[in-house]
Amino acid sequence: MFKFTGTIKVIQPTQQVTEKFAKREFVVTDTTSMYPQDIMFQATQDKCSMLDSYNVNDQVEVSFNLRGREWTSPQGEVKYFNTIEAWRIERPGQGTGMPAGGPSAMSLGNAPASTPSSPITAAEDDDDLPF
Fold it and tell me: Could you tell me the domains of the chain?
């Protein structure tokens, strides 16, 4: 799970891409650095309506997942695409925990750390990798 805070610059209408898939794109500007960044997010399916209560110039905190996929053109050329998929939008400081539907499998973070009751084996102890 990632979070991004900024000001809404653009909110597009919902697009019905196919009979079973809808998306809504919006742009949030981060003005905290010397070089402001305009980041385009995508909300899909039932998440499209979460933008209905926001307007251009509203300050927001967007929780999102980073998605990537491979596509092969009809000519056999392989390309890669990224999508920044928003799953929650709120006003800064309004943190309410996980959304009702919970995060997707991609946003669950790292595996749980080992507990003190977990014995460390000799093989793990000899591992000199930095991670």
Answer: 2-96 (2.40.50.140)
